């Protein structure tokens, strides 16, 4: 069996130093620094590329699903299955259900394994970094926050994959 296009692309890239991300935007002035960074320009470029890729496409049409997209869908299906396996807690609160903490604890344990199914083997060192982005994309277990404000982080967890994994 030959190398996949993802493996070929990964092999041709320069080496990268992966690291566990840490929060760098803590105060309003930090936002300006972020907006002037190359990382911000690359992230916005990624979002615009995704936007261009879907322009004029109908949701009702059949499309070829690449191996990479199927792997991403498999991860999302796993997360969805865990929701079914984690029933809501009967509680009086109108904000976030405490069962989210149980679900998130499972993600905390499995995140690196999940993202490893997407990352080409030659780039396995990226798994701990990308796992953090995945966990941030689904919310915060302390605040039980999994609302609509997480749209940006959803793209952030896919963004680090984009140089190596064609979508």
From TrEMBL:
GO biological process terms on file: mitotic spindle organization
UniProt catalytic activity: [protein]-peptidylproline (omega=180) = [protein]-peptidylproline (omega=0)
Gene Ontology annotations for the cellular component aspect, listed alphabetically: cytoplasm; nucleus; protein phosphatase type 2A complex
Main location per the UniProt record: cytoplasm
Keywords, comma-separated and alphabetical: Cytoplasm, Isomerase, Rotamase
GO molecular function: peptidyl-prolyl cis-trans isomerase activity; protein tyrosine phosphatase activator activity
Name of the protein described by the UniProt record: Serine/threonine-protein phosphatase 2A activator
Superkingdom of the source species: Eukaryota
E.C. numbers: 5.2.1.8
Family classification: Belongs to the PTPA-type PPIase family.
UniProt-listed SUPFAM superfamilies: PTPA-like
Keyword check for Transferase: no
Locations listed in the record: Cytoplasm
InterPro entries hit by this protein: Phstyr_phstse_ac (IPR004327), PTPA_sf (IPR037218)
Class of enzymatic activity (EC top level): isomerase
Protein function: PPIases accelerate the folding of proteins. It catalyzes the cis-trans isomerization of proline imidic peptide bonds in oligopeptides.
Keyword set includes Cytoplasm: yes
Membrane-spanning parts: none
A UniProt-annotated Pfam family: PTPA
């Amino acid at each position: 069996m030959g190398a996949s296009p993802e493996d070929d692309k990964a092999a041709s890239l320069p080496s990268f130093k992966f690291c566990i991300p840490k929060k760098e935007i803590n105060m309003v002035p930090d936002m300006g620094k972020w907006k002037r960074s190359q990382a911000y320009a690359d992230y916005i470029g990624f979002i615009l590329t995704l936007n261009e890729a879907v322009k004029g496409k109908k949701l009702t049409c059949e499309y070829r699903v690449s191996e990479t997209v199927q792997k991403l869908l498999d991860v999302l299906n796993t997360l969805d299955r865990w929701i079914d396996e984690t029933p809501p807690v009967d509680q009086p609160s109108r904000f976030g259900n405490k069962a989210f903490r149980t679900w998130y604890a499972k993600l905390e344990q499995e995140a690196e394994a999940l993202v490893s199914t997407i990352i080409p083997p030659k780039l396995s060192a990226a798994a701990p970094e990308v796992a953090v982005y995945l966990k941030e994309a689904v919310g915060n277990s302390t605040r039980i926050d999994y609302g609509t404000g997480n749209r940006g982080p959803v793209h952030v967890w896919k963004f680090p994959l984009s140089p190596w994994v064609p979508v």
